[in-house]
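Dear colleague,

As promised, here are the two records you asked about, laid out in our usual form so they can be pasted straight into your sheet.

NAME FIELD: protein one
SEQUENCE, THEN STRUCTURE:
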Amino acid sequence: MIKIFRNIRKKLLEQGKTASYIKYAIGEIILVVIGILIALQINNWNDTRKIRKSEQEILQNLKSELIINKIALEKIYNSHLDAFNSGITLLKLFNTDILTMPINKLDSILAQFEMSRTFEVSDGYIKSLLASGKVDYIQNSVLKTFVGAFDGQVIDATEEIIPMKKLFEDRLWPLIDGKINSSNRIRNLSGYSNLPIGAYTSNYTWFFENREIEDILSNIMAWRLDLMDDEKTFLDNINKMIKSIDNELNQ
C-alpha cells in the first residue's frame, strides 16, 4: 500500500502537477492520522473491555469475602444480643427474692451474660486489592470508598469489646471468685458440659445484694450496647455493599 502511494506521488511530480502532489500528500497524511486514531480507539476499547472483565472478577471475589464476614458478624451480633438479654434478666433480679430460683438456672444466665466473643475479620482479598491498586478498577465510587475504609469500619465495629472485657477480667471475676462457682457456670456453655461439677454452691443471695456487682453489670451492659450498635451499623453497610455488587454484576 505504501509503495502504491509513493508511485502516485512520483508520477504527479514527473507530470509537473505540484499542486495536485501537495493536495494528495496532505490527504495521505490525513488518512494516516485517521488510521492511527482508529487503531488507538480500538486499543482503548480492548483495554476497557479487559478492565471491565477484571472488575467483574474483583466484584465476585469481593462479594465472596463480604458474605464470609456477614455470616461471621451475624453470629457474633446474635451472641452479644443473647448476652445482653441475659444481662437485663440479671439486673432485674437485684433486690428481689431469688431463693425460689434454681441455682443452676442462675448459673446458666450468668454464663450467657459473660459471653464476649470477638469478631475475627476476613480481609485478605480486600488488603491485596488495595495493595495492588486494582481497587481503582471498581467504577462504583461508593463501593470503592467502602473498600478503602474497610479496615477503619472493622475497628469501629469492634473497639468496645476491649473495655468491656476488662470489666469482666479486672472487676467482676476477681470479685465473684470463690463465691460464684466458675465450673458450674462454664458447664452451661456449649461444648463444656463434661466439665466436673464444682465443689461448692454459688452464693447468689450475696451476689444480688452486692451494690458493686450491680454497678459493674450495668457498666458492662452499656459497653455491650454500644458494641452491638456498631456491629449492626457495620453489618448494614456490608449488606448494602453486597446488594450494590449484585447490581453492578447484573448490568
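NAME FIELD: protein two
SEQUENCE, THEN STRUCTURE:
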Amino acid sequence: MTENLRDKTVKGVAWSFVERFSVQGVTFLLELIIARLVGPENYGLIAMLAIFMAVSQVFIDGGFSSALIQRQDRNEQDFSTVFYINVGISIATYALLFLAAPWIATFFGQPILAPITRVYSLNLVLNSLVAVHKTKLTIDVNFKTQTKISLLSAVFSGLLGVALAWLGWGVWALVWQALAAAVLNVVFSLYFVRWLPRERFSRSSFRKLFAFGSKLLAATLISSLYSRIYDLVIGKRFNSVSLGLYSRADKFNQFASTNISGILSRVSFPVLSEIQDDDSRLLSVYKKYMQMSALVVFPLILGMCGVARPMIHALLGNEWDGCVAMLQVLSFAYIWDCVIMVNLNLIYVKGHSDYVLKLEIVKKLIAFGILMVTMFYGLLAICVGRVLYSIIALYLNTHYTRRLLNYGFITQLREIAPFFAMSLVIMALAMLISALVPRAIVALIVSLVLCPVAYVLMCRVFKIAAFAELMSLIKDKIK
C-alpha cells in the first residue's frame, strides 16, 4: 500500500471507526435501556415498518450517491441534480406511505401502525435533505465531521427516547427518538457542511449518473427487500413479540459485523477508486482490506456468540431470553458479511454495477426460496436458512472477483481460514466462561477481559501478518 493510500486509509478508518462505534455505541447503549423499558412487543411494531422504510430509502437514493463517489469527473451541477432528485422522490414516497398507512396496519393486524407510519415516515424526507452533504464528506474521506454530526444527533435523540420510555410512552418513545435524530442530523449537517444547491437540475447530469446508479438501484433494492423480508414474514406469520426478539438478535449481530464491514467499505470505496485501473495494486490493497475485516469481525462475532446468554440477561433482562438462540445461529450468517461486502466493493470500484445487479437477482431468488421453506419450521429454522444463504452468497460473489482479479472462492477461504479457526477458539472460551460463572454480569465481564487477550496472544504466537499490519496502522495514527 503506497504512503498516500496508506495515509488515507489510516485517517479514514480511524475516524470512521470513531464515528461508527461512538455513534452506534451510544445508540446501542441507549437502545438497550429503552428495550428494558418498552419490551419486545413495542420493538416488534417498529420492525414491522422496516421493509417499507428500507425500500423507500433505496428509491430516494437511487444509486446516485454511489455514482457520485465512483465518478472522478463529478462537478457542482451533478451534486445539485442529485439533491433535487433525492428531495423530490422523498416527498412523493412519504405521500404514498401516508396514504398506505391504514393498509399497512390492516396487513399486520395492528391498528396503531397507521398513525405510527405517518409520523415515522417523515424521517425519509428529513434524511434526503442532507444526503448529498454526507456523500461529499465520504468523497473527501472526512469521517471526522461525520462523527461530530452523528454523535451529537445520537446522544440528544437517544436521551429523549430514554426519557419518553421512562415516562411510559411505549412505542411512541421509539418513534419520536428516530424523528428527533433525523431533525438533528439535518441541523448539524447544514452547520458543519456549508453546502446548498447552486445549479439547476441537469438532464445531462441525470443521464450520466443514472447510467451507473440505475443498475446499482436495482441491486440495492433487491438486497434491501431481502434484508427486510424477514421482518415482514415474521411479523405477519408470528407476532410482534417474536419479531421484537428476532429483531434484537439481528441488531446485536449487525452492531458487531455491519459496523466494522461498513467502516472498511466506506473507506475502501473512494480509496480503491483512485487505483481502479491498476490491477496489481488494486489486488494487493484489496487483499489487505479483506484480511483486516476478517481479523476484527470474526472474533467479535463468534466471541459474542459464545457469551450470548449472559450478555442478553445482563443487558436486557430475562424477558429477552428468547433471542439468545437466534443470536447464536445468526452469528454464523453475519460472520461472512465482511468478506461479502469487500468482494462487492471491488466490483463497484471496477465500475461493473451490471455484475452486481446480476448477482443480486440470482442470490436473492435463492434467498427467497430458502425463506419460503424455512418459515414453516419456526424462527430458528429461518435463522439457519440465513446461514446457508450467506455461504452461497459468498461463493457467488467470488465468481466475479475471480474473473476480474483472479482471486476466487478457494483462494479467499485459505486466506481467512486462520482467522476463523482462532475465532472458534475464542467462542469456545466464552462458552466455557458462561458455563462456569453463574452470574450473568460477572460472566460477561470476565469474557470481555480474557477473550481479547487470548486472541491477541494467538495472533502473536502464529505471527498473523494482518495483525502486524493493523498494529502498524494504529502506531502510525498515534504518532
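A couple of things worth noting about protein two: Residues 53 and 121 are 7 Å apart (CA to CA). The chain has two domains: 1-237, 256-479.

Best,
R.
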